[in-house]
């Protein structure tokens, strides 16, 4: 073959045939991953699978070896309560009210008294709560953690609570309060954001049908607690998103109270994989 002809064919191959080969290789890579425009390794495909968001965490549609929950360790920094130097629990608040002559019928006393009651009562179930209520609390009354067998001992669930102490028996619990709870969840302090966080609404009445439906349909991990003004737990429930954040395997059941002489009073207890659990 003449040298001139050979040179022309070489130029033709370089211009037209090599790009076609590269294009075919890129196409092969795209078929493997279903999303890439260039060849990549199989490991790269797995790490970059499409993701689906569930609240504040990401669940990967792919190999189960990848974690789906990411908890935050380290010390939590609690916002200061507006009256931290005057009272910090139920007993100190009652003493403060007596010392200052606070009207026990006022909404301030009733609300704060109820918040401390809730913190004390839920402590029996393993909650460790602090009152932070104030003008800039984003609707959050109590912050803390909840140690459970469903989570590592050094990484308890982080919880935030809104407490509603209704002054009249006819006060209605509407789905509006679940929407307010969602707002509190989204506006939580830095240590209570991301995965491993659950928000609870606490009132003195059992959840209505509308509240239960709003809870079930919420895209955020939420729960509901009915606690009387005297500190008696009557109801506790949570949605599927809360299970995904760390309550999988946990449950609630009623048990006869050990202190009741007639044997007809019941109290709520936690269960872990169907068996009674005591923190």
Write the layout of secondary structure elements.
Layout lengths: L2 H31 L8 H6 L3 E4 L2 E4 L29 H11 L6 H16 L4 E5 L10 E5 L10 E8 L11 H11 L10 E7 L5 H9 L4 E6 L5 E6 L1 H8 L2 E7 L9 E7 L2 E3 L2
Parallel strand pairs: 5-6, 6-7
Antiparallel strand pairs: 1-2, 3-4, 4-5, 7-8, 9-10, 10-11
Helix pairs in contact: 3-4
Your description of this structure?
It is a single chain. The protein has helices spanning 3-33, 42-47, 90-100, 107-122, 176-186, 209-217, 240-247; strands spanning 51-54, 57-60, 127-131, 142-146, 157-164, 197-203, 222-227, 233-238, 250-256, 266-272, 275-277. Strands 3-4-5-6-7-8 form a six-stranded mixed sheet, with helices on both faces. It is an alpha+beta fold and 279 residues long. The termini are far apart. The model is unreliable at 22-70 (pLDDT under 50). 33% of the residues lie in helices and 22% in strands. It has seven helices and eleven strands.
Distance between the termini: 90 Å
Structural class: alpha+beta
Q: What is the typical, i.e. mean, pLDDT?
A: 77
Contiguous low-pLDDT stretches (5 residues minimum) are: 22-70
Helix count, per DSSP? 7
Instruction: Tell me the helix content.
Output: 25-40%
* Rg over CA atoms: 28 Å
Biggest sheet descriptor: 6 strands, mixed
Q: Bin the strand percentage.
A: 15-25%
Strand order of the largest sheet: 3-4-5-6-7-8
> In sequence order, what are the helices and strands, one letter per element?
HHEEHHEEEHEHEEHEEE
Structural shape = globular
Number of DSSP E strands:
11
């Amino acid at each position: 073959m003449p040298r001139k002809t050979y040179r022309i064919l070489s130029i033709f191959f370089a211009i037209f045939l090599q790009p076609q080969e590269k294009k075919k290789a890129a196409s092969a890579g795209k078929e493997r991953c279903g999303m890439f425009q260039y060849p990549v390794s199989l490991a790269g495909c797995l790490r970059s699978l499409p993701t689906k968001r569930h609240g504040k965490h990401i669940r990967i549609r792919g190999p189960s070896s990848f974690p789906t929950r990411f908890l935050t360790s380290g010390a939590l920094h609690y916002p200061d309560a507006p009256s931290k130097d005057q009272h910090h629990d139920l007993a100190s608040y009652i003493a403060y009210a007596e010392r200052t002559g606070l009207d026990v019928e006022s909404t301030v006393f009733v609300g704060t008294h109820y918040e401390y009651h809730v913190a004390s009562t839920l402590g029996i179930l393993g909650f460790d709560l602090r009152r932070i209520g104030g003008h800039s609390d984003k609707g959050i009354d109590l912050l803390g953690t909840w140690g459970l067998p469903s989570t590592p001992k050094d990484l308890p669930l982080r919880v935030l609570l809104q407490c509603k102490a209704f002054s009249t028996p006819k006060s209605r619990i509407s789905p509006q309060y679940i929407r307010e709870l969602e707002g509190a969840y989204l506006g939580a302090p830095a240590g209570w954001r991301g995965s491993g966080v659950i928000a609870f609404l606490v009132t003195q009445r059992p959840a209505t049908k509308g509240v239960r439906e709003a809870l079930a349909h919420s895209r955020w991990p939420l729960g509901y607690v009915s606690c009387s003004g005297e500190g008696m737990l009557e109801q506790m429930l949570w949605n599927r998103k809360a299970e995904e954040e760390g309550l999988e395997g946990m449950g609630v059941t009623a048990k006869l109270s050990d202190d009741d002489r007639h044997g007809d009073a019941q109290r709520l207890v936690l269960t872990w994989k169907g068996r009674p659990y005591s923190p």
